[in-house]
Amino acid sequence: MKYLFDETSIKCSKNVTATYSTSFSLAVKMLSPSIQEHIHAIYGFVRFADEIVDSFHDYDKETLFNEFEENLNKALERGISLNPILNSFQHVVHQFNIERELINAFMYSMRADLSITDYNTVKDYEQYIYGSADVVGLMCLKVFVNGNQKEYDRLKYSAERLGSAFQKVNFLRDLKDDSELLNRTYFPHLEGQTINSTNKAVIIEEIENDFREAYKGIIQLPIEAKFGVYTAYVYYNKLLQKIKRTAAEELKERRIRISNPVKISLLAQSYFNYKLNLL
After folding, report:
1. Whole-angstrom Cα distance, residue 272 to residue 278?
2. 45 in helix, strand or coil?
3. How many Cα atoms are found within 13 Å in the side-chain-facing hemisphere of 58?
4. Burial of 7 (0-12, 13-18, 19+ CB in 10 A)
5. What percent of the chain has pLDDT over 70?
6. Where are the alpha helices (DSSP H) in 183-222?
7. How much is the average pLDDT of 166-187?
8. Contacts of 267 (CB under 8 A, 6+ apart)
9. Residue 187 has pLDDT above 60, yes or no
């Protein structure tokens, strides 16, 4: 009975979300139950692709990535995959008419992590962020608007800006690991230098601008998605403010985190604002 396999597939995607990101998993729980499993499916797909290029250091990453991409293409063509993560993802792609261009852009950026270690130009930096983050936001937006192209087009820019903001915050948070473990530098603002108070301020301002543009779209999202996306927005904004207060040299020494009690407090604050229509 295929429905059992499909149910098992989405449970696998949900488990991936819960295992890899407690913060994102919490935000997904704030979405309407009618769309949660679709977002789990998208996250499971992007998480697995990212794990190949970021974590499997003792294996042939390129071969694994090639095989993953080949299986992805077969899943999209056939409408089924024995890989449960790809099986749940292909269902979402077909149900909500997610464009192949978004998927291709994501895979392009993931593949770049196999060989590119420095993004020296703004163009390369923006292209990487578009593929690694903006398109993920756009895939989720397709679900949020239930495939409505007119609504998608109206909210597309804000969704891209939110994806960019999230990714840039991740870059700052993970500066130590990206540099020491992966030998990567994503910010062209550094120009081969280490981060300092001057170039850090430029990056922070860029992210704050992204958040401002993103918020304009968040408040216009369908009710099924608004609270969950707003919760993630509040969490990442809080993380950015903590990074902003942290000395530049300290960002190269430790990963900045938000404690679980603070996360719960942020959730309560988000719920309060949402219920009182303060968004």
Report:
1. 8
2. helix
3. 0
4. middle
5. 94
6. 197-218
7. 86
8. 26, 30, 231
9. yes
CA pair distance 250, 65, nearest whole angstrom = 34
Q: How far is CA 216 from CA 37, 112, 168, 226, in A?
A: 26, 31, 19, 12
User: 176 near 254, Cβ under 8 Å?
Assistant: yes
* Tokens matching residue 174: 């993970």
- For tokens 């990487």, what's the residue? 128
d(CA 38, CA 215): 23
Cα–Cα distance for residue pair 175/158, rounded to 1 Å: 26
Q: Is CATH 1.10.10.60 what the domain over 2-275 is classified as, yes or no? A: no
pLDDT at 180: 75
In the chain, the amino acid numbered 170 is: N
The tens digit of pLDDT for each residue in 31-84 reads 999 999 999 999 999 999 999 999 999 999 999 999 999 999 999 999 999 999
Angle ∠(267,39,167) on CA atoms, nearest 5: 70
Q: Is residue 186 within 8 Å of residue 119, measured between CB atoms? A: yes
Q: Measured between alpha carbons, how far is 135 from 38 in angstroms, rounded to an integer?
A: 15
Q: Three-state SS for 185? A: strand
Residues 247-266 have pLDDT tens digits of 988 888 888 887 777 766 76
86: Cα separation from own chain's centroid: 17
Residue 166 identity (one-letter amino acid):
F
